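Dear H.,

Thanks for agreeing to be a second pair of eyes. The structure we're designing against is below in token form, covering all 306 positions.
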């Protein structure tokens, strides 16, 4: 990969070659990125994106890597590791309480810190391991809450490298999807998000979070995974269909449909992307044949080598 681009990125933020992406995904799976640059502010994110595009190199913006399966061959071009996590507010605006968080802010950390300070509305996100940027892509949600309920606006960098503010409605958020996942926002990178909160009792918020934590611990496996593998084909639940076709506990290599929650695939140690992909294909085949239902991936495939 181009030395000029490497040097340009290195002048903006810490930059490496050949960084294994298994270190940066919750699955613990993924081959190397040609170039890997870690940005710690929205301005560095903006400058890095502009530099990569200016050089005509492929670009992938990585959040917490909690909803992706990166191929064993890794990702060609540049991966921007988005750790832009500055938070401002909440501040009163037109009668609402708005917190502004850069797109690399971990959603769970924001939910917990706001709750402690007596700002509610996002406590359901206290167990979501992704960033606000990833949440905009998937309309992250849990326990009857989702980003669409609280998102007012985002600051984005458009494909034309111009910064602009989009109203939440322009992201077309729906169940685990958005204009991003439907290809309606090509080249758009989220720099920051604005969320509407409300005042609440910190003790009540902390009790709700403790309840959500307990429910998550009861229902979901610990260890390395990427959360839900398939979207729920509502009104059916994906786990129920995977269970019904006999795949609970099924294993290929070190990838296994979790015994505890079989819409999760666990990396038992040295799972490869191709093992996970093979399990996913098997579930889709069996569910299609038995129920005529097409299971849709919630986890996104990125890079090469499946
Ligand atoms: C244990 C576990 C539990 C989970 N529980 C939930 C849950 O309860 N509810 C839920 O909704 N999800 C859940 N998830 C899935 C995941 O946390 C969410 O989908 C999260 O929103 C993904 O964010 P991320 O930062 O990890 O995105 P990544 O996986 O890093 O990236 C996902 C996609 O978003 C794009 N992207 C990331 N940042 C930006 C940006 N700034 N601008 C433009 N595009 C961007 C990436 O390019 C990629 O295409 C869970 C995952 C795990 C591992």
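And this is the sequence the design step returned. I haven't edited it by hand at all.
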């Amino acid at each position: 990969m181009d030395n000029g681009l490497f040097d340009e990125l290195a002048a903006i933020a810490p930059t490496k070659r050949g960084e294994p992406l298994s270190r940066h995904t919750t699955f613990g799976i993924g081959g190397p990125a040609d170039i890997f640059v870690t940005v710690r502010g929205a301005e560095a994110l903006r400058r890095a994106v502009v530099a990569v595009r200016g050089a005509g190199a492929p670009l992938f913006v990585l959040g917490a890597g909690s909803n992706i399966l990166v191929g064993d061959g890794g990702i060609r071009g540049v991966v921007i590791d988005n750790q832009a996590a500055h938070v401002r507010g909440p501040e009163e605006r037109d009668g609402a309480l708005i917190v502004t968080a850069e797109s690399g802010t971990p959603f769970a950390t924001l939910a917990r810190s706001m709750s402690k300070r007596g700002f509610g509305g996002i406590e359901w996100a206290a167990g979501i391991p992704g960033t606000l940027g990833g949440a905009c892509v998937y309309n992250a949600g849990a326990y009857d809450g989702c980003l669409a309920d609280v998102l007012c606006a985002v600051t984005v960098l458009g494909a034309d490298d111009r910064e602009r503010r989009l109203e939440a409605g322009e992201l077309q958020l729906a169940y685990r999807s958005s204009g991003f996942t439907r290809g309606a926002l090509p080249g758009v990178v989220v720099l920051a998000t604005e969320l509407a909160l409300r005042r609440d009792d910190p003790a009540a918020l902390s009790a709700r979070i403790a309840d959500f934590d307990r429910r998550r611990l009861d229902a979901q496996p610990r260890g390395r995974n990427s959360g839900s593998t398939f979207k729920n084909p509502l009104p059916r639940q994906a786990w129920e269909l995977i269970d019904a076709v006999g795949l609970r506990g099924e294993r290929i290599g070190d990838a296994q449909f979790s015994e505890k929650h079989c819409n999760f695939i666990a990396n038992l140690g040295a799972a490869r992307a191709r093992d996970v992909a093979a399990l996913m294909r098997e579930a889709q085949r069996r569910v299609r044949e038995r129920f005529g239902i097409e299971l849709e991936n919630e986890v996104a495939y990125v890079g090469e080598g499946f």
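Two observations from my side: The first strand starts at residue 15 and ends at 20. Residues 273-291 form the longest helix (19 residues).

Warmly,
E.
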